[in-house]
Write a structure and sequence with these properties.
Helix content is about 30%, strand content about 20%. The protein is α+β, with helices and mostly antiparallel strands. The protein folds into 2 domains: about 110 residues, Alpha-Beta Plaits (2-Layer Sandwich); about 160 residues, NADH Oxidase, CATH 3.40.109.10.
């Protein structure tokens, strides 16, 4: 299926073209045209088999919207001319579920995204969780920008409530900038009374050369959800960093210190209205562990 634009009688109109012959066409409504142009929803009619899976996984459809439907056996985005609760959530579920790779959305094609992970992940991910340790001794070496970029690209896929886009990340990328952050924190009058001088261990990040922070504006209505999103982003980043061979230290104490320093938040570009839950210091670990550990937690199993 293609979005076809034509000039008829001096007026630009849009159609959905279901066939090469051009005979099977239906003129788009204003709402349909707006939605398709906004979400950039496209279907390759040569590939689409009309299975309807995209309709069934669409969150907008599930909550009572009329976002996707089958028209002549082809998936079409309709009705909701805006993003939102009963419109397109920008989640890309339709692109991801399509077995034939027929759907592109938001300007993203199936060829641009990753495929399904191999079955080996069921063995490797539990090993990684058991192996990762809190790192309190880092090498005096900066992590390359390429590695940081790769981790940030992956952690951007962290789930958020309603697939909102309000979660933000901040990364301190060099050791020099980390020292500037320390000076901002402990140069603040509120913090200066607590610590004397520029103690690089005072933030309890153990001289980590880099810092990852997730932050978000938190309102009364969805406060718990926002805190959950920040916690998930922290967990995702921590595991990804360890998968790349980095060491990490998670600190709520450091988040409190940074939150209390206006200078530090300004230095990091974090709005005063945004909440910090935790921060992660990261870098190359000084020591390499030979194995994981074995821990247990109390589990109530309801059967």
């Amino acid at each position: 299926m293609d979005l076809v634009c034509a000039k008829i009688g001096g007026v630009h109109v849009a159609y959905v073209d279901f066939g090469k012959s051009g005979k099977e066409r239906r003129r788009l409504t204003k709402r349909e045209r707006k939605m398709i142009e906004t979400a950039k929803f496209k279907v390759d009619y040569e590939k689409c088999i009309g299975c309807g899976k995209c309709l069934e996984v669409c969150p907008g459809n599930m909550v009572g919207g009329n976002v996707l439907r089958l028209d002549n056996g082809i998936a079409v985005m309709v009705d909701q001319g805006k993003f939102g609760w009963k419109g397109c959530w920008k989640c890309q579920h339709c692109l991801a579920v399509c077995p034939e790779g027929a759907i592109s959305v938001l300007g993203i094609s199936p060829e641009e995204v990753t495929g399904k992970p191999t079955i080996a992940i069921k063995d490797e991910l539990p090993k990684l969780i058991a192996y990762r340790r809190t790192c309190r001794a880092f090498k005096k070496t900066d992590v390359s920008k390429d590695v940081i970029d790769e981790i940030l690209k992956s952690v951007s896929g962290v789930p958020t409530g309603g697939n909102n886009f309000s979660l933000e990340f901040c990364v301190v990328e060099t050791r020099d900038k980390m020292r500037e952050l320390y000076r901002a924190v402990f140069g603040d009058p509120v913090q200066k009374s607590m610590f004397d001088g520029e103690d690089l261990s005072a933030l309890r990040l153990y001289d980590a050369p880099h810092l990852f922070i997730t932050h978000k504006a938190v309102g009364d209505r969805f406060q718990d959800g926002a805190l959950t999103e920040m916690g998930l982003a922290t967990a995702y980043f921590e595991l990804l960093a360890n998968a790349f061979g980095l060491g990490t230290v998670i600190s709520t104490y450091s988040a409190e210190m940074i939150s209390a320093s206006k200078r530090a938040k300004e230095f990091l570009g974090i709005p005063d209205s945004h909440k910090l839950l935790t921060v992660i210091g990261f870098g190359y670990p000084k020591f390499e562990y030979a194995r994981g550990v074995k821990k247990s937690k109390k589990i109530n199993r309801i059967r």
